[in-house]
Amino acid sequence: MTSKKRKGWGLFLLLFSGSACFAQIRVPRMISDGMVLQREMPLRIWGFGTPGEKVTVKFDGETASSVTADDGKWIVELSPKKAGGPYSMDIDGINHIWLKNIMVGEVWFCSGQYNMQLPMEHVREQYAELIAHAGDVPVRQFYIGEHYDYKGPRNNVAGGHWETADTNSVLTFSALGYLFARQIYDHYHCAVGLINACVGDAPAEAWLSPDALRQFPEYASAATRYADSVFPEGAGPADRMATGGLFNGMVAPADLYTVRGILWWQGEANVSKAGDYSAIFPLVIQDWRRHWVENEMPFLYVQLEAHGPVQEQPGESTWADLREAQRMALTLPGTGMTVSADLDADGKLQPKDYEEVARRLMVSAEGVAYGKKDIIFSGPLYESMKVHGDKVHILFTDAGNGLVVKDGGELKGFAIAGPDNKFVPARAETDGKKVIVWSDQVPHPVAVRYGWANNPYGVNLYNRDLLFKDGLPAPPFAGRAKVKKSP
């Protein structure tokens, strides 16, 4: 072999070995053209490459670098940015990635069941004017399609891209998410990004990570069976009660994306197991916060909607049981709950006024996520009850400038029970500071309920806001007098 040929062969081997050692860097589908990045918070940009490879990200005048870890993932953190755009981003490793049309604004992760998933297409007649002018407001959505994975958390979503709202594209946006985004824009005048990850009939346990599921042996065992099964990637059992699959397929790939908080509307699939839900739902909140590495990441949720016809007489209600489990999750910091059960007389599982739900969510966001001072961002919340003779006195937190009966008239929705635990309709009145409840049928009351029905439409206890207008509705609740311990 001549000297010239040997040099040529050596150059070929050098180039071949170099390409074998260093694969091209890649980014997940969510890090792409048209994305919205969260303003005023540290930003994580991540991707994949060869271990040991240096990656540099340039964005909005800042340059930051990282080295790909042994697991093939690299993460670059950027300093907080002000709202604005459009910007471009350069990512350099062995190759170059150029991303364009990037906005900085507010980003929310939207998840849950049917009412969060419901697209604008289904309410197009009701919101025709907003749809016609959708292009006037800078709202973008990344839709994460339904995807189960029982083998373990995924690094990337199965598909999707950032889409800008206009008259046609907005029809695929989450209706509640989009109406909430417009509220955000009206308040803060910046671009809004929605990450839409919903499955219409999925239970809460399907959204738990493999680690969190260990706290529930029954669910963890089922998840293990599915992981060892023959279900192909992205597929799963038809009953949709499978545990863990949705977290792996739809949440894990997004938990590095910096967001302002979570919007959640779910519960229908767990109505028959409210007792389990009282433990599962708080764990979902804590589990997601752990994966986003935000201990008090704002988690705003909508309490279960109305179901079925309005009930005139008090009785047992699995839907009320589930709402109570949701109410109890407010003990976790950084949470906010929006009432929706008072908005639908028909109880068709779809409140007629999504815009009002979005408005209430925005008030909750102002207090929980944006730290706005001097704002009443919750309806009156049950605190305690005391029995005085044959009457129950109920105290509330978050009463604002006083308790009121919305639109005046009689205070509705209360029932009390004696030691026999048989609830009967009760009369109620408020002096602005407390609610007094009684019934001639119950001379020795020990328990009280409010709005305790599948469909509690007509309940009308509200608080007053700072302008002395009707504020927000009290959520349904149950209370019981404390039993005095014997000395």
Structure, explained:
The chain has helices at residues 3-21, 114-117, 128-132, 175-188, 210-213, 217-227, 245-251, 274-292, 318-328, 354-368; strands at 36-38, 43-48, 54-59, 62-67, 73-78, 84-92, 96-112, 139-143, 162-164, 192-198, 261-265, 299-302, 335-338, 381-388, 391-397, 403-405, 414-417, 424-425, 427-430, 434-438, 447-450, 461-464, 470-473, 477-480. With 487 residues, the protein is α+β, with helices and mostly antiparallel strands. It folds into three domains: 36-105, Immunoglobulin-like, CATH 2.60.40; 107-368, 3-Layer(aba) Sandwich (Rossmann fold); 381-480, Sandwich (Immunoglobulin-like). The strands form five sheets. Strands 1, 3, 4, 6, 7, 8, 9, 10, 11, 12 and 13 form an eleven-stranded mixed β-sheet that branches. A four-stranded antiparallel β-sheet has the order 14-15-20-19, with no helix packed on it. A four-stranded antiparallel β-sheet has the order 18-17-21-24. Helix 4 (175-188) crosses helix 10 and helix 8 (274-292) runs parallel beside helix 9 (318-328).
Explain briefly what this protein structure is.
A hairpin with a 3-residue loop joins strand 6 (84-92) and strand 7.
Keywords:
27% strand; 487 residues; disordered N terminus; Immunoglobulin-like; alpha+beta; eleven-stranded mixed beta sheet; 10 helices; 22% helix; Rossmann fold
